[in-house]
Each structure stands twice: as C-alpha cells, then as structure tokens.
Amino acid sequence: MKNQKMDITKSPLFLMPILLLMWGSLAAVSKLLLNNLDSYQVLFYMYGIGVAVFFVIVVFKVKFSVIRSWKRSEFALIISCGSFTFLYDFFYLKSLERIPAVEASMLNYLFPIFIVLFAIPIHKEKLTVYKVLSIGMGFMGTVLLVTKGDLANLTFTNLKGDFFAMLAAVSWGLFTNLIKKNQKDMFLSTFFITITAFVLSVGAILISSEFILPHRTDFLGVTWLSISNIVLGFFLYFRALKYSPASLIASFTFFTPFVTLVFIVILLGEKLTITDYFAALLIISSVPIQKVRNIMGKKKRQLINKGNNV
C-alpha cells in the first residue's frame, strides 16, 4: 500500500493536474486581490511569504557552505533571473489593473514565442519554418485580441495594459533562457531568485506605494499565490520532471490557458466574445505547432532506421 502511494506521488497524472490548477488560478486570484491591494503590495507580500517559507526549508535541507564555491558570474546570473522574475509579475499585475483578465492572460501566453526568439541569440538555436509559423500565429492572435477584431480602425481597449501584458511575456522569455544557463543547485538558486525579487518589491513599494496590513481574505489570497506559484509549484514541477519525460510535462502545460480561462469565468464572471475565442485559439495553438518539426523529424528517423534494418 505504501509503495502504491509512492508511485502515485511520482506520476505526472497526479502531479500535473494539481500544478495546472495552481498556475491556472494566478490571473483570477490576482485580479480579485487588486480590488483591495495595489500591484506593489501584492508583490511585496507574495515574495515576502515565499522568502520566509523557503528560508525555513533551506535551513533544514541545504548546506549554505556550498555557496562559497559560487563565482561572481554565477551570482550575477541568479540576480538577473530574479530581476526578470520580478518584472514578469510586475508587468502582469500592472496589466491586470488595466485590462480584463481574459485579455491579460492570453497576451501573457505569448511567452513561449519569446522563449523561441531569445533562444536564437542566447543559445544559438535555429529559426525553423515551424517556429516562424508559430510566431506568425501568435502575432495574429495578439492583433485580434488587442483590437477586438476592429482591424480597420485599430481601436484598443487599453494600449498600456496590453503593452504591460506583452512585456510580462518578454520578461518570462528572457528568464527562461537565462535560467537554462544556471548549473547550480536548483533549490538554492530558486531561493536566491525569490530573495532578489523580494528586494525589488520592497524598493518598488517604498517608491510607489505604502505598507498596509491586508485583510484576512487578502492575506490568504497572496499566501495562495506565493505557495502555489513560487514554493509548492516549484516542488511539483521539478518532481514531475524528475520522474517523467520533459516532452510529456510540456504537453500538460498546453492545458494551462484553458484552466486559466475557466477560473476567470467562474471567479470573475468575465465573458468571452467570439473574437476572444478565436484570438485565444491562435495564441494557444502557436505553442504546440513548434512540436510538429520534432514529431516529423522523429518519424523520419524511424523510417530511415526501419529501411536500414530491412
């Protein structure tokens, strides 16, 4: 019985649905919190709680002596990753303050395209036909979403809000490519990334906002965001990667936008127009289209190997 439970906790069919529920709740819960707190206060409490929880875990699980072997360049990389993590949340929350959660979340899901674009100069990856097609689909979806289909007059619901949502996607694209360069302990790295983001959130709240004690409901909300997206989300994601193929985990992440939309409709009562549905379909479909080349290439190699064995 014990072994059966252990197998379940290693299964992506158990881990990923929980993670998708956590990731999918980000936009809707953040939008609700912004009714009583501003974006600076949400960031401060979200990262503050994350640092506190991580610190307790690190004290018991990690030896700080390993940090002595870290080079300045490695610390600089972690600080850069922490900065882009902060910028992602900052721009995303700023967009949620200005535009509907549906619009902000769908523009945010352009980040896989920016991951591809930044991988070209950072990791020297090649720009394939399928990647260009993916970028084109994402761009068309973005134009439809921000103009609400009125391409002739190019009217925007809130240009600044749309711009913030796209900057969030750019920030996550840069973060993802930079974190791939990190060779240090992932848990300790995430701890310092969270500290960097927290320090930036303190500076932001001192300059642009004020410290307040949130109401109980709001505190529970920021605690949920911190645990689900920073602390527990980290453990579930890397545990799933440890025991399952990365391609399988990537396939599960394609469902995140749909889970996000479900939370938005249920918790916020926002409605999707036909244009929203079509734009969302274009943006979401732009991600798996990048996998077509890998699938076709794999089948081609299998056919060649089969032919050689005949």
Explain what the structure shows.
The protein has about 300 residues and is mainly alpha-helical. The chain has one domain (about 1-310). It is built from 15 helices and no strands. The termini are far apart. Mean pLDDT is about 80; it is low at about 1-5.
Task: Spell out the key features of this protein.
310 residues; mainly alpha; 0% strand; single chain
Low-confidence stretches: 1-6
Helix/strand-derived category reads mainly alpha
Average predicted confidence as pLDDT: 81
* Order of helical and strand elements: HHHHHHHHHHHHHHH
How many structural domains in the coordinates? 1
Number of strands: 0
**Radius of gyration over C-alpha positions, nearest whole angstrom:** 21 Å
What's the tally of helices? 15
- As a percent range, the share of helical residues equals over 70%
How many strands, which pairing sense, and closed or not: the largest β-sheet?
none
Beta fraction? under 5%
N- to C-terminal distance = 47 Å
Shape assignment: globular
